[in-house]
């Protein structure tokens, strides 16, 4: 597998998740923590030319990559980017403006664990009544050494992983109802070189982690993109 094949495999996975969580043609969707735009592009493909996606990120460091990606998937005209902290989106999104609010691997990168409550409450504020909020995170229940290594690598780079119970609790605190979770397994394997590229700006952590402890594990078991877990809830 090369970098392009890896991106295609992850994009297909994102498309499958987006469709199964209920994104539909014509919707207005907010994607929180859009990063390099892979999930945004999958959402934008799915909402079609009459839909809209507002992509939000606290940082603009991935904006070039983001712009390239929405161009590559031909969805530029239906996507807008805003730089904002998802703990307070009042300056960029009004109450109940979105049919659906989604995130993909946002929570793992929070700088402060206590922000989870504020962020999920903001997601609930901006979704319409009866609309859905859906959070997607890596499942930390590794099924084998190859998944375990992927998660350990990200933990060592400083990512904070919330337990499923903590995410469900934050959704309940935000008064979301009918909370459902679902697992999406993957069959995506990384070579050590691709694993390093996937770490993006945290590549330096990759070298350190490999040197300290993970090198032999990656060598022996390889690395696998773990299953994703979705958490969705409805605004009553
Ligand atoms: C793992 S990346 C997201 C990946 C992306 N959703 C995708 O499809 O590939 C996490 C992103 O969350 C952003 N982020 C972290 N804390 C945030 C916050 N408080 N508000 C908005 N974005 C945040 C980071 O800047 C980073 O771009």
Figure out the total of helices. 8
Number of domains: 1
Present as ligands are: S-adenosylmethionine
General form? globular
CATH-defined fold name? Rossmann fold
**N-to-C order of helices and strands:** HEHEHEEHEHHEEHHEE
How many strand elements?
Answer: 9
Radius of gyration: 17 Å
Give me the CATH superfamily. Vaccinia Virus protein VP39
- Order of strands across the widest beta sheet? 3-2-1-4-5-9-6
Fraction in helix: 40-55%
- Low-confidence sequence ranges: none
User: What's the CATH class, please?
Assistant: Alpha Beta
The CATH architecture can be named as 3-Layer(aba) Sandwich
> Which structural class should the secondary elements be placed in?
alpha/beta
Strand content: 15-25%
Main sheet characteristics: 7 strands, mixed
- Estimate the mean pLDDT confidence: 92
What does this structure look like?
With 236 residues, this protein is α/β, with parallel strands linked by helices. It has a single domain, classed as Vaccinia Virus protein VP39 (Rossmann fold). It has eight helices and nine strands. Strands 3-2-1-4-5-9-6 form a seven-stranded mixed beta sheet, sandwiched between helices. The chain has a two-stranded antiparallel ribbon with strand order 7-8. Strand 4, helix 4 and strand 5 form a beta-alpha-beta unit. It is globular. The termini are far apart. The site of S-adenosylmethionine has 19 residues, from helix 2 and strand 2.
């Amino acid at each position: 597998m090369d970098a392009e094949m890896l991106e295609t495999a992850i994009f297909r996975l994102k498309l499958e998740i987006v469709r199964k969580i209920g994104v539909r043609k014509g919707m207005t969707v907010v994607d929180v923590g859009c990063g390099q735009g892979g999930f945004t592009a999958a959402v934008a493909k799915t909402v079609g030319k009459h839909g809209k996606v507002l992509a939000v990120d606290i940082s603009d460091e991935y904006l070039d990559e983001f712009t390239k990606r929405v161009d590559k998937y031909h969805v530029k005209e239906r996507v807008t980017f805003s730089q904002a902290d998802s703990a307070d989106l009042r300056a960029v999104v009004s109450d109940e403006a979105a049919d659906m609010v989604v995130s993909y691997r946002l929570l793992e990168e929070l700088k402060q664990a206590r922000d989870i409550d504020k962020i999920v409450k903001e997601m609930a504020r901006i979704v319409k009544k009866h609309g859905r909020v859906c959070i997607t995170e890596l499942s930390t229940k590794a099924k084998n050494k190859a998944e375990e290594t992927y998660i350990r690598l990200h933990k060592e780079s400083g990512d904070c992983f919330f337990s499923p119970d903590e995410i469900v609790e934050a959704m309940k605190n935000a008064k979301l109802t009918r909370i459902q979770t679902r697992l999406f397994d993957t069959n995506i394997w990384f070579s050590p070189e691709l694993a390093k590229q996937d770490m993006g700006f945290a590549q330096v952590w990759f070298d350190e982690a490999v040197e300290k402890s993970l090198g032999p594990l990656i060598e022996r078991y390889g690395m696998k993109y773990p299953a994703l877990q979705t958490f969705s809830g409805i605004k009553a």
